[in-house]
Write a structure and sequence with these properties.
By secondary structure, the protein is α/β, with parallel strands linked by helices. The protein is built from ten helices and twelve strands. The strands form five sheets. Strands 1-2-3 form a three-stranded parallel β-sheet, covered by helices on one side. A three-stranded antiparallel β-sheet has the order 4-5-8. Bound molecules: zinc ion (ZN).
Length: 283
């Protein structure tokens, strides 16, 4: 079967070397096997994503010499599809509305954190009656939609057999319960990263999901969503995260060099590809 990979950045800033490394990793996995390489813009967050960054991503990747197959999928143009997926889960009783604020959740318990870095949800709104939900909703209170994790696991039947296949590692047992009742539709966006990424990987026929080690734990949840929705299981390949000279992970907040800056300094695409393919990395 032909390999299909994708690079799926969020247009919240300019691409830096860490992105280039990640994009090249996915691109090589596809191209070296005569497979397809797709580009997707994960722009569901209206407060952080900007069109000029989206345009810059396409331009920077093309400058770097990366080509992609087919049209770029832009998630913000497909909210109706994510809505339909949410409706399907809701009809099976697997979602519930949550009216809590972030402060409510922080204060509610010394809850362990999820792999997303947020406190695990204590389930405050899980037991609300339909009347109580209707009262909140008709009062115009914003709400998120959360996955009812216990029911989701029960819906799997034999959850103990849930695994994902990682390159060079074999089958890895999944523990999605570490996410608790995870948000699948945010208060401020009609979907969530976890929902959209699994939806789109299935829709686009991605067979090999390449991602940084920082998203390894999310994969446990993604397998659960895939099984719940009847979507196929892609294989996974995890890559280390690029670090700077002091060993810290490259990130926008650290003012990591953007491809634009490197380009302005006179670096060629070949220079940048070399920088991004023989990086200092760490797990
Ligand atoms: Zn709540």
């Amino acid at each position: 079967m032909s390999i299909v990979t994708r690079f799926a950045p969020s247009p919240t800033g300019y691409l830096h070397l860490g992105h280039a490394f990640s994009a090249l990793f996915a691109w090589h996995r596809a191209r070296d096997a005569s497979g397809r390489f797709l580009l997707r813009l994960e722009d569901i967050d209206p407060t952080r994503c900007r069109p000029e960054f989206a345009a810059a991503i396409l331009e920077d990747l093309a400058w770097l010499g990366l080509d992609w197959d087919g049209e770029v999928r832009v998630q913000s143009q497909h909210f109706a599809e994510y809505r339909a997926t949410l409706d399907g889960l809701a009809a099976r009783g697997l979602l519930y509305p949550c009216f809590c604020s972030r402060a409510d959740i922080r204060q509610s318990a010394a809850a362990p954190h999820t792999p997303d870095g947020t406190p695990r949800y204590p389930g405050t709104c899980r037991g609300l009656s339909q009347d109580q939900r209707d009262t909140h909703i008709s009062a115009g209170e914003p709400y998120a939609l959360r996955l009812h994790m216990d029911r989701a696991l029960a819906a799997l039947g034999d959850a103990a057999t849930l695994t994902f296949e990682a390159a060079g590692e074999g089958a890895i047992r999944c523990h999605p319960q570490q996410f608790g009742d995870v948000v699948l539709a945010r208060k401020d966006a009609p979907a969530s990263y976890h929902l959209c990424v699994t939806h789109d990987d299935a829709l686009q026929g991605v067979t090999l999901v390449t991602r940084g080690e920082d998203l390894r734990q999310a994969t446990h949840l993604h397998r659960l969503l895939q099984v719940l929705m009847g979507w196929p299981a892609p294989r996974y390949a995890f890559h280390p995260l690029l670090t700077d000279a002091s060993g810290r992970r490259l990130a926008k907040r650290d003012h990591a060099a953007t491809l634009r800056e490197l380009r302005a300094q006179g670096r060629s695409p070949a220079d940048v590809r070399a920088l991004a393919s023989s990086p200092r990395t760490s797990d």
